[in-house]
Design brief:
Helices cover 41% and strands 15% of the residues. By secondary structure, the chain is of the alpha+beta class. Among the domains are: 2-100, no CATH class; 131-190, no CATH class; 404-555, RNA polymerase Rpb1, domain 3 (Enzyme I, Chain A, domain 2); 561-703, Topoisomerase I, Chain A, domain 4, CATH 1.10.132.30; 768-885, no CATH class; 967-1053, Gyrase A, domain 2, CATH 3.30.1360.140. It has a six-stranded mixed barrel with strand order 7-15-8-14-13-16. Strands 1-2-3-4 form a four-stranded antiparallel sheet. Strand 24 and strand 25 (751-752) form a beta hairpin. Helix 10 runs antiparallel to helix 12 and helix 25 runs antiparallel to helix 31. The protein is globular. It starts with a strand and ends in a 12-residue tail after the last helix. 33% of the residues are buried. This is DNA-directed RNA polymerase subunit.
Length: 1193
């Protein structure tokens, strides 16, 4: 590498060529001054005459510059030239190029290079740094000896190499170390995952921690964790003695470290004469005493007084931090209240598994006991599990019942569950335990009075929501279940699949995961959380666990082999379905072999065959599953779990009982890998379902050898996919968090980074917190809120308002002082809801009441809206909206990185078919997310979606397709022949007029296309045409073969670079999908609506439409990738991610090049990647870091 520069003071041009050695550079004197070589050579005339071999060496004019010479040259650089070298000239920095030459070797303290006493041999094992210092000293001692000049130069080179190894032991060009041992230099101790930045500064080990296996305990509240006594004795908390706790702490001191509850140490100040002696000797007057002996305990307890510190055992109700790795998001570490119990595992409520992604198959978790009151307060008010019930990712509940809890509650609320008084009272009594022991409990009136009083399971479920009217909890909900609702009759659904809860009474429906589990904002517990607070929600979950599991334990629930044994009718039905499907597949294969198979749009015949067979085999599996579902008894255990949503699905049941189905590898059927066949069991080229991975047997009947192999191949793909995905998504999340870590909401509602640069003028464009969203986009669900107000506040003595009175009343309320300053968007949303949803219903029921006098009072009572109800409704809406405004100081950047990075672990690495177009493969999952986050210049599957001016015109769609799709000359020619005559050599091309007419191409257009190609400039002299012929004349005979090869690929019509164009028809509406990165050219095609044409290539959109359009593409593409995998992330997180990528006027990817553009903090850059480079550059330019931004990961 050559570096050329001109010094202003000397006005000489220097060319420095970097050599291969570590200890010198080469100065090429005459690189740009060849005329002065002779003058230079004359100085060495005498030497050359004595040794003629030196003449060519001298004429090269190369000068070796070693560190000593470089120091002399650098010292001559005046300070006024320093700005030209990008070095500050201010004297406070004390900087100069001469300081780049190290003259004194810095020696690290022995604390970071300790000596280890060897147990094998006498002596010590020295640290790598110590060994390198020894080598440096040895070389320095050798140089000081009386040795020759050549040996001295060699020793200097060795000394330089050892010092370079000390700084960076992985630098290229270093001599090998004896025994090829890997040495860690200073740079290696700073960089990497285990270096000082990431291993010690950003993530630190802690004391007062414990780790063991976890197990479930539904008797724990969701904010409690059970700590083993053994751990509680080892974890201590320093509690200061006061007058209020003196006697209690004295009793702990007397118990000592081995009796629980006890104390381990006591720290106290010396008193009297001993204090004066300590002050005189200059030692500390604080003594820490270990309470191992009984005499020490009695002595300390006797003189214990206020101000002393007792390091006591962990006690009940202490705040501890509970964590599981990998900690992918904020709620992976939460605060719990400790409950000390015997045995050896951490036990907690299974409702809390989801935030930690924990299960009980041997998982281990950690606890940490905070050591100060400030830390306890922060953990209690910010990290307590009660305050982390919902996910910051999208506001959906995370802490919720799972598995057995859902199954048990589902069985309890079936419409055929009746309980006598003993059973009902036994279940209800489960609510009287722990802190709830003395609370009131009201058993409802029995549903059946005679001949025996019987209570339904639905009534017992009502006690879970509100055990007594004094609680004031009135839950109101109307929600269809996920799988049992038949879409008929709402509350009168024959499957009992529509849930109606009114005033905390379950009137209809059988609850399932949608009503109980996480991930649903229509769940019962989310309604409790939003309407009655965290405590009410936590109490209800605890009551559910107590009743549901007690009921399930006494009812019994298990799975046996008989549950998955198919009946003879089911076996016959499955055989018939498979036979019909195989016959259809054979018909497709025969059509393919006879070339009569009709191709799908944009597909080859082979692609069409695979698509048709895959669709048919999917039908086989679905029909077999439907037959299986029809014939299973409603009490079948796998069916109960699938219907309730607690575990498994109907597909799992079908695979166990009916057939496993098609095995997919790489998104396709099993490929041929062994001499044209998938396995040696089948003939070459076979395309039958059995030969391409269809498993017709079930897990109950057992798989044949070939089916077993196919199933193992598919399972292996899933394992490798998971292994690769873990590393990719982990690195992606780290990059996201490093970019976004310093973004926070300021007090002017803007989102700013640590430098004060504005990223967003208002977070998410509306300033609302995703955590508080009741719907996907708004913090209040008006319909549910109105139903709740009407049911909870009946106001029997007030008259309902008419529609006109209601709209007028809303306007009047908005003029009151309490509502005058409401956000305009909230006012508009309320008015729109009242006008379009409430008023039409009121008018409808008023008309019905005037026509039907009977029952009008009851209808009017239930459907009316009074002034009090309206005032309460508006007050609740106002409070929820104001609560949803994001608080200043919120670390929205870190939340964004976690919310986008954590769901990526649920995605796959596969490429899926584009919806509706079998031939269009589009990158999805982790690879597509990586392309978006990296702002990749070349993406794997660029796709343009074209909207037509007349989407219902098939002819226009075909015309636009032909205008976009590249038509090569070979596509419209019948023959191509070489002609040689005495006068000319030319290529004669006969055109196919039918194909040309179909594509709208004329002969002159073909001739013009050939003339405008690159061939015209190099290989073709002229082009002529006559009717159906084109004549191409090469420049000479030698160019004839080249012209013949290249002329076929000449693009006659269409857009070069487009690989495929497909028309998609949906309900008569046509859309065109273009595979290729040619957005500008596609938008210019007649018949295309340019404003609605979309591309998934971010950088191309930036070049064509600008950075704002690119930002919109980033948002849309990220949301599409996540929605394709069933992952919901609030759009505000994605908007922030896109704004950071584009806020500097260009699209910057989340990688090291974009990091250097976005950040100027030296420590932030060094803690990310290329630690040494950033530190060296910062030292050269004398950069400082104001420590304004925090660093994570």
């Amino acid at each position: 590498m050559s570096v050329t520069f001109k010094l202003p003071s000397s006005r000489k041009t220097c060319v420095v060529t970097k050599g291969t050695s570590l200890s010198y550079v080469v100065h090429d004197i005459f690189r740009h001054a060849k005329a002065k070589v002779d003058d230079y050579v004359n100085d060495f005339a005498k030497v050359i005459t004595e040794n003629t071999e030196l003449a060519p060496v001298v004429r090269k004019g190369l000068e070796i510059i070693r560190p000593g010479k470089a120091l002399q040259l650098f010292s001559k650089i005046p300070e006024e030239d320093l700005p030209l070298l990008l070095m500050p000239s201010d004297s406070q920095w004390m900087t100069h190029p001469r300081n780049l030459i190290v003259q004194r070797v810095p020696v690290c303290p022995s604390a970071i290079r300790p000596s280890v006493v060897s147990e094998v041999r006498s002596g010590t094992n020295e640290d790598d740094l110590t060994q390198m210092y020894q080598w440096i000293l040895a070389q320095a001692a050798t140089i000081e000896e009386d040795i020759g000049e050549a040996d001295q130069i060699a020793c200097l080179d060795s000394l330089h190499a050892e010092f370079a190894r000390l700084i960076n032991s992985q630098q290229s060009g270093l001599p090998p170390v004896q025994d090829h041992k890997f040495m860690r230099g200073l740079l290696q101790r700073l960089a990497g995952k285990h270096g000082r930045f990431r291993g010690s500064l950003l993530g630190k080990r802690t004391n007062f921690t414990a780790r063991t296996v976890i197990s479930p305990d539904p008797n724990m509240r969701i904010d409690e964790v059970c700590i083993p006594v053994h751990c509680a004795k080892l974890l201590t908390y320093p509690e200061r003695v006061t007058d209020f706790n003196l006697n209690f702490l004295r009793s702990l001191v007397l118990n000592g470290p081995n009796n629980y509850p006890g104390a381990m140490f006591v720290s106290y100040k010396l008193r009297g004469e001993r204090k004066r002696q300590a002050e005189a000797s200059g030692t500390s007057d604080v003594v820490k005493r270990f309470l191992a002996s009984e005499r020490a305990r009695e002595d300390v307890a006797k003189y214990l007084q206020s101000g002393d510190i007792v390091e006591r055992h962990l006690l009940d109700d202490d705040i501890v931090l509970f964590n599981r790795q990998p900690s992918l998001h904020r709620v992976s570490i939460q605060a719990f209240r400790a409950v000390v119990k015997p045995f050896r595992t951490f036990r907690f409520n299974p409702c809390c598994c989801t935030p930690f992604n924990a299960d009980f198959d041997g998982d281990e978790m950690n606890i940490h006991l905070p050591q100060t009151e400030a830390a306890r307060a922060e953990a209690k008010h910010l990290m307590l599990s009660l305050k982390n019930i919902v996910s910051p990712k999208n506001g959906e509940p995370l802490i919720s019942p799972i598995q057995d809890l859902i199954t048990a509650t589902h069985l309890l609320t079936l419409k055929d569950v009746f309980l006598n008084r003993d059973q009902a009272c036994t279940l209800a009594s489960q609510l009287l335990a722990g802190n709830h022991l003395g609370r009131l409990l009201s058993l409802p009136k029995p549903a059946i009075l005679w001949p025996v009083a019987l209570w339904t399971g639905k009534q017992i479920f009502g006690l879970i929501l509100s055990p007594h009217p004094s609680t004031g909890i009135k839950v109101n909900l109307r929600v269809p279940t996920k799988s049992m609702y038949s879409s008929k009759g709402s509350e009168m659904c024959p499957n009992d699949g529509f849930v109606l809860i009114q005033n905390s009474e379950l009137l209809a429906g059988c609850v399932d995961k949608k009503l109980l589990g996480g991930g649903s904002k229509s769940s019962i517990f989310y309604t409790l959380l939003r309407d009655y607070g965290r405590e009410a929600c936590a109490d209800a979950m605890w009551r559910l666990g107590r009743i549901a599991l007690f009921f399930l334990a006494h009812r019994g629930f298990s799975i046996g082999l008989g549950e998955v044994m198919p009946s003879s009718d089911l076996v016959a039905s499955k055989t018939a379905v498979i036979s019909r499907g195989f016959a259809t597949c054979d018909d497709y294969i025969n059509q393919y072999q006879m070339n009569t198979l009709v191709c799908n749009p944009g597909c080859s015949m082979e692609d069409t065959l695979e698509s048709n067979i895959s669709q048919e085999l999917s039908k086989i599996r679905d029909e077999a599953g439907a037959a299986c579902k029809r014939q299973l008894h409603p009490s079948n255990s796998p069916l109960v779990m699938a219907q309730s949503g607690s575990k498994g699905s109907f597909l799992n049941i079908s695979q166990m009982i009916a057939c496993v189905g098609q095995q997919v590898i790489g998104g396709k059927r099993v490929p041929d890998v062994i001499n044209g066949r998938s396995l040696v069991h089948f003939p070459p080229g076979s395309r039958t379902p059995e030969a391409k991975g269809f498993v017709g047997n079930s897990f109950y009947s057992g798989l044949s050898p070939s089916e077993f192999f196919f199933h193992a191949m598919s399972g292996r793909e899933g394992l490798t996919d998971t292994a690769v995905k873990t590393a990719d998504t982990g690195y992606m999340q780290r990059r996201l968090v490093k970019f976004l870590e310093d973004l926070a909401v300021a007090y002017d509602d803007t989102v700013r980074d640590s430098r004060g640069d504005i990223i967003q003028f208002r977070y998410g464009s509306d300033g609302l917190d995703p955590l508080e969203m009741e719907t996907d986009t708004f913090p209040v669900n008006f319909i549910k809120e109105m139903e709740h107000i009407r049911t909870s506040y009946d106001c029997p003595h007030e008259v309902g308002m008419s529609a006109e009175e209601l709209e007028l009343a809303v306007e009047v309320v908005f003029q009151l002082d309490a509502f005058r300053h409401l956000d305009s968007r909230l006012c508009s949303a309320i008015k729109e809801f009242i006008h379009h949803s409430v008023c039409p219903k009121i008018r409808k029921w008023q008309e019905w009441c005037t026509e039907n006098a009977n029952g009008s009072n009851l209808i009017n009572q239930n459907e009316r809206l009074t002034r009090t109800q309206l005032r309460i409704f508006l007050t609740h809406v106002k409070e929820k909206y104001e609560k949803a405004l994001i608080e200043p100081g919120t670390a929205v950047g870190a939340l964004c990185g976690q919310s986008v990075g954590e769901p990526a672990t649920q995605m796959t690495l596969k490429t899926f078919h584009f919806a509706g177009v079998a031939s269009m493969n589009i990158t999805q999952g982790v690879p597509r997310m990586r392309e978006i986050v990296n702002a990749a210049a070349k993406i794997k599957t660029p796709l343009i979606c074209v909207t037509l001016t007349d989407p219902f015109s098939a002819s226009l769609a075909r015309q636009v397709k032909l205008s976009i799709e590249p038509t090569r000359l070979a596509d419209i020619s019948l023959s191509l022949s070489q002609c040689l005559t005495p006068e000319y050599v030319y290529v004669a091309i006969k055109l196919d007029k039918k194909r040309m007419d179909r594509r709208g191409i004329t002969t002159p257009q073909v001739a013009t296309a050939i003339q405008t190609t690159k061939l015209k400039k190099t290989k073709i002299s002229r082009v002529t045409y006559a009717k159906d012929y084109i004549f191409v004349y090469p420049v000479d005979l030698n160019a004839l073969e080249t012209v013949v090869k290249l002329v076929e690929d000449v693009i006659v019509k269409g857009i070069p670079g487009v690989s495929r164009v497909v028309i998609q028809q949906d309900k008569g509406e046509h859309r065109i999908f273009v595979e290729g990165a040619r957005l500008r050219e596609v938008m210019c095609i007649p018949g295309v609506v340019a404003e609605r044409t979309q591309s998934n290539n971010i950088l191309e959109v930036e070049q064509v439409l600008g950075v704002e359009a690119a930002r919109r593409v980033v948002i849309d593409e990220l949301l599409a990738v996540m929605e394709g995998h069933g992952v919901e992330v609030n759009v505000r997180h994605v908007m922030l991610l896109a704004d950071v990528m584009t806020n500097r006027g260009e699209v910057c990817g989340y990688q090291r090049t974009g990091m250097a553009k976005a950040k100027n903090s030296v420590l932030c850059l060094a803690s990310f990647e290329r630690t040494g480079d950033h530190l060296f550059e910062a030292a050269y330019h004398c950069q400082d870091d104001q420590l304004t931004g925090g660093c994570y990961i």
